[in-house]
Amino acid sequence: MPLVSLTDAVSNIMYYTSNGTNVVIAAMLGVIMIARLHAMYQRSRNILIFLVIIFLAVNIACGVITAIGLQYLIGEELILSGTYMCNYGFEADVQLLISMIWMLNTVWEVIALCLSVWIAVKHFRELRRLGPSTGSTIGDCFRVLIKSHVLYFASFVGVSCLQLGLLSPVITVCRPVADICL
Questions:
Q1: At 88, is the secondary structure helix, strand, or coil?
Q2: Is 112 exposed, middle or buried, given 0-12, 13-18 or 19+ CB atoms closer than 10 A?
Q3: Dist. CA 166–CA 99, nearest whole Å
Q4: Measured between alpha carbons, how far is residue 142 from residues 1, 34, 136 in Å?
Q5: In terms of C-beta distances under 8 Å and separation of at least 24 residues, what long-range contacts does 18-22 make, across chains too?
Q6: Helices 138-147 and 150-166: crossing angle, nearest 10°?
Q7: Contact 107, 82 (CB under 8 A)
Q8: What is the distance between the alpha carbons of residues 32 and 155, in angstroms, rounded to a whole number?
């Protein structure tokens, strides 16, 4: 049995915990998103069933992929200028698994964005139809966007696309001095 220092054991536990926490937080945010979209669609049962099925498929797959990826985790103890630090790497090429998690979450968010945009378009049409009689303004249009959460979903999709770009091996840069990849 290999000897593992207490620092390595605690660091591994913290790493597993932080990755597990990411999965749980993503699931909690998904539940909040389902509640928002369900309310936006006037409590439609069909939308609720559709969202729950997609949500469960994405989150179960992400949980399984995370567990598979953590099996290949290697923790190392580094001593840099007298400071003990933990470094993590993977035995195998886990980059594909990590990008699969981001892709699945991005698909979920794109679906939510499309549903949100659909409701916003319906509200804009209604505002335009009622516009001259109610005196609607640009402020009303912005209020509809905020009310329908389109800005939230669009910003998440934008960040997800940037993150997927960073996972690309073409964009990843290795510095030869310390062999650190950014």
A1: strand
A2: buried
A3: 10
A4: 63, 22, 11
A5: 19/66, 19/70, 20/66, 22/66
A6: 60
A7: no
A8: 16
Token representation of residue 122: 């319906």
Report the chain's C-alpha Rg in angstroms.
22
Token pair for 101: 């998690």
pTM over 0.85: no
Tokens for 89, please give them: 């790497």
pLDDT tens string 136-162: 566 666 666 666 666 776 777 777 777
Question: Token pair for residue 169?
Answer: 């091996």
| pLDDT tops 70 at residue 89 | yes
Each residue's pLDDT tens digit, 17-48: 887 787 788 888 889 889 988 988 888 999 99
